[in-house]
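[audit] Reproducing an earlier prediction to check determinism. Same input, same settings, fresh worker. If the tokens differ from the archived copy the diff job will pick it up downstream; this log only records the rerun itself.
[audit] input (143 residues):
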Amino acid sequence: MTKARTDYEAFEQSSVANRRLLREEELILDVTEALSEMLEEEGVTQTMLAQRLGKTKGFVSQILAGGRNLTLRTIADIADALGYRVHIVFSKETKGKQRIPTKESLTMSGVEFSVPNWKWNRSSEWQPLTKIETPQSELSAAA
């Protein structure tokens, strides 16, 4: 039995340009959702974030609404203003199906935010890291 394609699948498979457009929009949505959830988790308002960034509340609103192009620098600045670091994880697609990252990676559609010794995952739960992610060179320099 052949499964009927959804409109999404049909659009995705219609051209390389359309598939890339979908991936761009998915990433924008994932990042803006993650940023919004971080603000909520930290109890930081858009006004407070704007002050920390030295930007206007309108700038922050546009970012969280997906209306402003997010640069990697802007994402890093926002994460830093909230006490986070950004870690990017790429997942390979095979024959039209995306590989799902392992539970251990605690990814959020390829984007994960962390604070020292803790990671936040998509279910909004804080979990301790199994190991400290400090490079050996930093440990020996601090000794």
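[audit] rerun output stored. Observation attached for the diff report: Helices lie at 7-14, 16-42, 46-53, 57-64, 72-81, 136-142.
[audit] end
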